[in-house]
Design goal:
The chain is mainly alpha-helical. It folds into two domains: 1-185, no CATH class; 186-275, no CATH class. The chain has ten helices and five strands, in the order αααααααβαβαβββα. The strands form two sheets. The protein has a three-stranded antiparallel β-sheet. It has a two-stranded antiparallel sheet with strand order 4-5. A hairpin with a 2-residue loop joins strand 4 (256-260) and strand 5. It starts with 9 loop residues before the first helix and ends with a helix.
Amino acid sequence: MDHKDWEPKRRLEIQFQNALIEIGKHTQGLIEGLTDPFDILATVKSLLKNMVFHRYADEMATKMVAGLFSAGEKTWRLAARENSNGRVIYDALRRELQGPVGGSVNFQIQRNAEIIKSLPLDIAKQITDYISEETIKGRRAGAIAEDLILRFPDVTKSKAKLIARTEASKTSTALTQARAENVGLAWYRWRSSEDGRVRDSHRLMNGVLIKWTDPPSPERLEGLKNAPAPYHAGCVWNCRCYAEPVVNLDYVKFPVKVYRNGVISMVNRSDFEQI
């Protein structure tokens, strides 16, 4: 199988993004014609207590996670064919929702639902900041309200794109990790999207073997200051990297780069098997 089989399906990210944009379109309709910026702010905040919106968020999160989970199952079945103990994977797939994998699925649904529900609060903060900045400049309320209505589609679309890219990727990695650990696969290979938009710190990680219990900090490895806490492939903002579980060492070309305890080094097969 090709390593790109493990890459999160782009169509699921786009579907999630479009659903988030629909929230923005709905809110845009609610604020059209308002001439007081504080009325706009109050309208956006009102979604936080809107039960219809909450149900929509739950449905969106469930659909996104379920889509990634289903797509991942097909990839794992391909992986089972290449594993010397493939029956273990097949059996685990059949029972997975009853154990830790099922718990991971439910957690990811809840986590993503909360992120969606917090979207109006994030936008409200941006609106509040803009009102403050423009009021200090002495601009009248009507002009500020006009600006907010004009800017709203771009703000919500940008936010939707960032959330969809980041959360679809993080969820995919979390489900891959849960499934891998459930069948005793302790390592994965970090894969970048291998194009010109890959950040330097993630290009450094491409092809490196990583243990699920020891995530790296790519920025720290590159020597950058203020590096974020360690994380797995795909688990930081706007990241398009993904995790390819090591299902069979016979398909790993040794020596290979391995990350351990804050260091990347070349390791041969016999040494790796002792780790």
